[in-house]
C-alpha cells in the first residue's frame, strides 16, 4: 500500500532496442558469481526505451521530471561511496508533470565513448550502466541496468620473443625463451627451457600466471597478487643439456586484458613466474611481465566506424636478471 505517497506506485524497466540480437557476455560480480550482461564496444550507440507501468491505473503519479543517464564509473573498495565517473551522459525524457497511464519513452546515446573495459577485481570495480530516474518530491524512483564493455585491440606490430638467462652463481644456470611478449586472451604460450648448469637437486618446476592489481596513488597504493594458473613443467631432476618444451593454453583461464593506469585509478598487469623447487623445499623463481590483449572477432556490421578503429597498442620490454631465491 502506498502510504502518504512513499510507496513505489510505478514499475520502471529499461529495454534495449537491439536486445534480441545483441550478444551477451559473462562477467564476474563483486560477490564472485558470474552473470550475463549485454555486450558493447567503444563507439557503439546505446538506445532503447524506458517503460513506466503504473501499479494502480486509477491513481496519477506526480513527478519533477524523468531522465535517463549513461554512466561509466570506477569504485575503489577502500573508498566506497566515492564514485569516480569518467563517462556521464544525460537525456531528459519528460518535463515535470504527472503520469496518468502507463507509457514508454525512447532514448538514444549516439556513438558513446567507452574507453575502458569493464572490470571487477579484488579492490576495484569499473562498471557501465544505464540509470532511469523519476524525480519526486520525497522519494525518487530509480532503476539501473548494467552492461559490459570489452576493449578490442589490434594485433601488436612489434611482438618480440622473450629470451633470458638466469641462475644462481655456480649452482644453477638456465635459459628460457617464450615465443612472444604479447598474447591475446585465447592464445598459446609456447616456449623452451634449457639447463646449462645444474648443481642443485631440483625436484619440481612450474610456470604460474600472476595477476597484479594496483589501486590508489602515492602512500595509498595497494597491490593485490592473484595466482591465476599453475602449470607444471617438470617433475624430477633435470640434467645439464636438457631442454623442456612449454605449451600453456590461455583460453581456459579467467583473464582480462592488461590495463595500465586506468583513469589514474588502477592497473592490472600479468606476469609469468618460473618457479623451481629443490629437494630441501627451497624455491627459486624468475618473473617476467607479459601483455594480454583482447582480439576482436570479425568486426560486426552494426559496429560503428569509431568502434572498428578503437584499439590499444602496448609496448612491452623484457628485462634480464638474476633468479630470486626464497628459502
Automatic annotation (TrEMBL):
According to its UniProt entry, one GO biological process term is: intracellular protein transport
Pfam families per record: Vps26
The UniProt record lists the keyword Lyase: no
Q: Which InterPro entries match?
A: Arrestin-like_C (IPR014752), Vps26-related (IPR028934)
UniProt keywords (A-Z) are: Protein transport, Transport
Q: Which family does it belong to?
A: Belongs to the VPS26 family.
| Name of the protein | Vacuolar protein sorting-associated protein 26B
> What organism does the UniProt record list as the source?
Orycteropus afer afer
